[in-house]
Amino acid sequence: MIVEAPYLMFLGDVPDQLAAKTAQGIVDWRPEWCVGQHRLPGCKADLKLPDMSIRQAAEAGVRTLIVGVANAGGVLPDHWSATIVEAIEAGMDVASGLHARLASKPAIAEAALRHNRRLTDVRHSNETFATGKGTKRPGLRLLTVGTDCSVGKKYTALALEKEMRSQGFDADFRATGQTGVFISGRGVAIDAVVADFISGAVEWIAPAAAPNHWDLIEGQGSLFHPSFAGVSLGLLHGAQPDCFVVCHEPTRKTMRGVAHPLPSIREVIELNIRCGQLTNPAIQPVGISVNTEHLSEIEARRLVEALEKEHALPATDPIRFGVGSVVRNMLNLYPQSKAA
Amino acid sequence: MIVEAPYLMFLGDVPDQLAAKTAQGIVDWRPEWCVGQHRLPGCKADLKLPDMSIRQAAEAGVRTLIVGVANAGGVLPDHWSATIVEAIEAGMDVASGLHARLASKPAIAEAALRHNRRLTDVRHSNETFATGKGTKRPGLRLLTVGTDCSVGKKYTALALEKEMRSQGFDADFRATGQTGVFISGRGVAIDAVVADFISGAVEWIAPAAAPNHWDLIEGQGSLFHPSFAGVSLGLLHGAQPDCFVVCHEPTRKTMRGVAHPLPSIREVIELNIRCGQLTNPAIQPVGISVNTEHLSEIEARRLVEALEKEHALPATDPIRFGVGSVVRNMLNLYPQSKAA
Fold this sequence. Notes:
The structure is a homodimer.
Chain A: E1 7-12, H1 21-29, E2 34-39, H2 54-59, E3 64-67, H3 81-89, E4 93-96, H4 106-115, E5 119-121, E6 140-146, H5 153-166, E7 171-174, H6 178-184, H7 198-205, E8 214-217, H8 229-239, E9 243-248, H9 265-276, E10 284-290, H10 297-311, E11 315-316, H11 318-321, H12 324-333, H13 336-339
């Protein structure tokens, strides 16, 4: 999936800020792509972007209208269609993170056809991929893996991209989830791909690159999650990472949505190495990323220090302490990659 | 997916016997369900079943017309539609293993709607499953796993079902691939499911059962196959098997479709235990199933004896030597399951 910037953020008339979480994530990480917002009467979300009409946005060069809001049931309300059709008629593509497909509204489907505009439903994959080949391809790759779902894998990969670019590395975030696709303008919601093509889709997401180029690949789920481990393993094999960062939420008692306890960080390291060696024999951990939002500053600092000692790896909370220590370790292990 | 027996096997006008491989597999394992065959002029395949008109088959009580042939490109030739429509009008459901969907032909879609008949495309999944929960459910389960794809996992599970039923076990083959779905009349082509629902679909395929009932679950792929390991891991977690049989083809040099060498049987045992413990801590191997078709009788016998010694497990070729030794081991380890 490819979503072309710059974006106009369409918020509809959602009832609160939380419903615009995806849109907010895009603004946080790609402020330079987000030209404005378009809200309907009654909208209670605000991205602090200039409010724009469709015409103003088109004149400002917007290429894509982003429907980056969550809605009860993921549906597309009928009274949003007119705005979407207006954007298509003004020359924009439309990309949506809703469960309902854009083309399920005949007016939208028909307008897109008439004006030859692209409708992208980020939660659905219409693309057909080859099956994964597992053949080593050039370029360096890092994958964020987890003890569980929703422990900061996307955030960590994006924080690494930002830090590495600021230090002069040639590094790109690679998206495997819907918010990530909007943020990078490219990628696949890997959990929506047909099972046979998981690793093949990841090979497309992170293709052959220059030898010192870094792909920072957003992980999904956990090899230890009974619902989603298949996705995580296909992602690991397709990513064929040179290295990985383990992401963790220390206060969680059971894995998300099920009754299973969390694995230890050591187990996660061992199993990712064991399985990842299939497509990259040199795979190794380079850091630990902990989401310490439920800990005090002192507790957080104690925890990352203890983890560093226990695993002989840099440990950090990207939000509290940044990811400089992880990047230093990467530079130490892959010194040639900075020269690029 | 549910396919109701008895079946009429529709062979179209395929040019050779190989094109009817799926249909032949159904006849081999479920002769009692296969009432007859229907062939168009020029058909070069023959299942050695009575040739029947659609009317004769309907009068004989056939419930489903099975399109169990492979075709160049998996398409549904236009000149097959009339026969399929005739079967629908005679009251039959239709189930197909082609890539092309039955309903892609308007005449077929319209007839099914008008007569309220079910069209099943075994290669496609329209069902929505819950995500896997990983909660232990009652009943005993065996999964066939592999060093590679296409090494006899379906055959081994079916051979175990036949042998166990003949010995009075309460045992059911559970299908995870298209031929298996036709053979068991129920199941899901697991590689066609959306990635997020692999383990959830397997929980549906092999649901809670009586404590001494055996599900013999058809495995797919291999944890060591770089294209399909995600499917295999989701299947392992969803199946939560008490035990597994490792299937192997000893003359294969690289894994199917890729350049990777085959893993050892020991590696396959270790990784399936390591990962399978997540949803069934008591998981253990109970046998090794070797496809020795490319070996002489003497070589085959030497190989299975060597494997038995090396792994302290019964080893066999189900076709050459039967699966009695594996079932004896299962009875030894789960003696209560025979009493059922």
